[in-house]
Amino acid sequence: MFAYYLQLGLRSLRKNPLLTLLMVLAIGCGVAASMTTYSVFRATSNNPIPQKSSQLFVPQIDNWGPDASQDNKGEPPNAMTYTDAINLMRDKRATRQTALFPAAVSIVPADPQMLPFRETSYAWYADAFAMFDIPFLYGHGWTADEDASHAAVAVIGKKLNEKLFNGANSVGRNINLNGRDYRIIGVANTWNPEPVFYDVINTNGFDDPIEVFMPFTRAVELQTTTNGNNNCSKDPGKGWDAWIGSECVWLGFWAELPSKEKADAYRQYLNGYAAEQQRSGRFRWAPNTRLRNVTEWLEYQKVVPQEAKVSLLVSLGFLLICLVNTVGLLLAKFMKRSSEIGVRRALGAPRKEIYLQFLIEAAAIGLAGGVVGLILTGLGVMGISLVFEPDIAKLATLDVSLVLLTMLLAVLSTVLAAFYPTWRAAQVQPAWQLKSN
């Protein structure tokens, strides 16, 4: 019966091509608008490291005092001073931990025909590779001993390895960073969490993958400047030593705490550390600290753009309007066939058969609308950069899951829209239709 009703539905659609076209376009446009904006919302609100998002935490310490925190609604600074980062690293209260910053590094190729260039580069500690589950093509990350010895080692990314070494195993070879040679000990596979949770402050959550990883201790020893934000509550003075010893905040910090008990203990440690700084005279205010995991940190930093939320709501409203129009068109189409329904009912067809026939016909319309919506969604994703920033727009992709969701939404929404017209059609009285015809 399903095949028979589908055949009847397709035949009915061909009888009224203009009406059918209007319904297909209404469904297609509504679904395309929703799926295009959803593709952006999905990418920006994605959990970038779901297997560990509840175990990775950002500690915050208020080193500026209530006057500055009042402007920030009582919250501590988003970044950390060098003094606090080094003290936390020294105390080793987390299972794994790292301070980090985007390093201003120039890559000098061995090929004299290539000019020096820059790639996204970060300085951090050895723990970061295991903390962030960074995959490797060749080799491995450096060790804690190499952190301690300020070793001239580096890990490079897959893209940079292809650019410099044609994708070959480059472990053991050298790379020149800012005029100094570093021994490559690992080549990381593509690692591009979206949003960029590990450094929201400097990237707003969206950036290119890291291509150069270098030891934090080595970068500081060579006075490698940050390529990110540097916020100071007062003039830090002149020179490198004055800057890193100041109250300027410029470092990110992450701690891995695999259980609630460890997280609670670390919160107590942060408060104790701030109280110790107060007793030493560095802080003149009560401890003010925070500890947020990945999802809490992304929400606090408002990584999902407001325009993505608004656009999604507007597009869903547009889809609703399209469905309301589809309800009217289906009602007109179905009620026009009252005589056909009356004859079928007089010959013994129960109401459930009328329901089944017209819902299958609506599903066919939805399927056609889904194909149109899929084409328009593809065009919408290609042109999304006209609405959103390029770093955000490039995250919107038409993958298999979005294709399936588009088709499912088109069919399901059309079938739901057809319930009222189908109910009205099923209420047709056979006797009245037979008398009038």
TrEMBL record:
Keywords: Cell membrane, Membrane, Transmembrane, Transmembrane helix. Its main location: membrane. It comes from the Bacteria. It is a multi-pass membrane protein. Residues 20-225 form the MacB-like periplasmic core domain. The chain crosses the membrane at residues 312-334, 355-388, 400-420. It is found in: Cell membrane. This is ABC transporter permease. It comes from Dyella kyungheensis.
